[in-house]
Structures are given as structure tokens and as C-alpha cells.
Amino acid sequence: MLVGGATVFITAYLLPGVKLDSFLTAVIVSVVLGIVNAVIRPILLILTLPITILTLGLFSLVINALMVLLVSRLVPGFVIGSFLNALLFSLVLSIISWFLHKLV
Fold first, then answer.
1. Do the Cβ atoms of 78 and 72 come closer than 8 Å?
2. pTM for this prediction
3. Residue 44: which residues within 8 A CB-CB, separation 6 or more?
4. For residues 17 and 30, what is the distance between their CA atoms, to the nearest angstrom?
5. What whole-number distance in Å separates Cα of residue 60 and Cα of residue 93?
């Protein structure tokens, strides 16, 4: 949970279109993002399976960005400027998360 919060905090610090109030907000974003990815994302992946196959899996990046935008609507203190910022946030978050998990 703290690694996820640190990942969100670092990612928000690196990207100019993302605003985060505090580290506690980053931990809350991490938890809510985990819940949204566990509950809503699988449903969206099943519903969009044909387009995901046609795009060779690249549409899953769009779904990740939509999940980040949803979390930004749910958590006060976490603001994403645009869809492109959400897409970059999800990509950078994945890379930093992978790197931190390798360290830990």
C-alpha cells in the first residue's frame, strides 16, 4: 500500500498535468485505483474485447487511462488535466511501479 502510494506520488510529481494534494491522497488514490482495477476494469476488458483484439491490445491503454480519470473524479485532491495526461499517468505509473517492485 505504501509502495503504491509512493508510486502515485512520484508519478504525480513528474507529470505537469497531474495535481496531488498530499501523500495521504496518493495512498488513497492507490487504494481506489486498485479497487477500480479489480472491479470495473475486467468488465470493460470483456465488453471491449473485439476492439482490443483489432488494435492488438493497445486499446487496453485507453481503458487504463479511463480508470485513472474515474479515480480522479472519485478522490478529492487528485486532479488529472486531460485524457492525454491520464494516458501518460497510467504509462508512467506502470513503469515506476515495476521499478519500485523490483527494488523492494
1. yes
2. 0.90
3. 63, 66
4. 18
5. 15
| Joined grid coordinates for residue 92 | 508512467
Write the DSSP symbol of residue 75.
Answer: S
3-state secondary structure of 83: helix
Instruction: Give SS3 for 31.
Output: helix
Q: Select from 12, 4, 34, 2 the least CA-distant residue to 78.
A: 12
pLDDT tens-digit series, residues 40-81: 999 999 999 999 999 999 999 999 999 999 999 999 999 998
C-alpha grid cell, residue 22: 498530499
Residue with C-alpha cell 513528474? 14
Q: Is the distance from CB of 90 to CB of 71 less than 8 angstroms?
A: no
Provide the residue type at 94 as one letter: S
Question: At a CB cut-off of 8 Å and minimum separation 6, what does 86 contact?
Answer: 65, 66, 68, 69, 72, 80
CA torsion 8-10-11-16 (nearest 10°) is 130
